[in-house]
Amino acid sequence: xxxxxxxxxxxxxxxxxxxxxxxxxxxxxxxxxxxxxxxxxxxxxxxxxxxxxxxxxxxxxxxxxxxxxxxxxxxxxxxxxxxxxxxxxxxxxxxxxxxxxxxxxxxxxxxxxxxxxxxxxxxxxxxxxxxxxxxxxxxxxxxxxxxxxxxxxxxxxxxxxxxxxxxxxxxxxxxxxxxxxxxxxxxxxxxxxxxxxxxxxxxxxxxxxxxxxxxxxxxxxxxxxxxxxxxxxxxxxxxxxxxxxxxxxxxxxxxxxxxx
Length: 260
Prior knowledge:
The chain is an all-alpha fold. Helices cover 61% and strands 2% of the residues. Helix 11 (179-190) crosses helix 13 (204-221) and helix 14 (225-232) packs across helix 15. The two termini are 37 Å apart.
């Protein structure tokens, strides 16, 4: 989201000869717990144009250009929008799934604006102030974070994983790792020289090794896929595929960057 917003704002400001913020951080992405929050959030977002009176009624919502609702119903098409994932949440048969989805969204109209889906942190996680105060009266406390939509256990799990990921990245930096050092370390693990790894090639061993490098470079060093594409003479889509392949290889072979 940050990259998308920055690119749009820079282009917009250049065209209109202006400076400064445009959206004031209005658009952002959050991590959402699939059950039970995803469907509620999906419905709430798709009803936004109706609440804002950008469309004349619920039927017109399906034709609204800047809403994915009509695409899920099959009335419009966006090549980039994954509708199957949402439809599967409502059933295996497409027609029945669309009908159930339509009924579900329509039923949310009367709910209006929901603070539990627009607030921050614990409020978002627990369903508004009433739910939070009820929990505290009973002596129950749960963790909340404005970047995450889910219950306390889900928030805790996500933050723990993020902390573990940060600690691994910090350790690499503390040990002086950069991309060159990472290439050497990958070479040690698989028995290849850095020169062999960097050179292009379609041999299975080389493809797998470069995939492992791409995964660790993006995951542990924060190296951009663009930088890896230049270094390894690949396209960015190829790097993206390599990252996914490398992740599976590291897991299946129990590879570790560290010597201990």
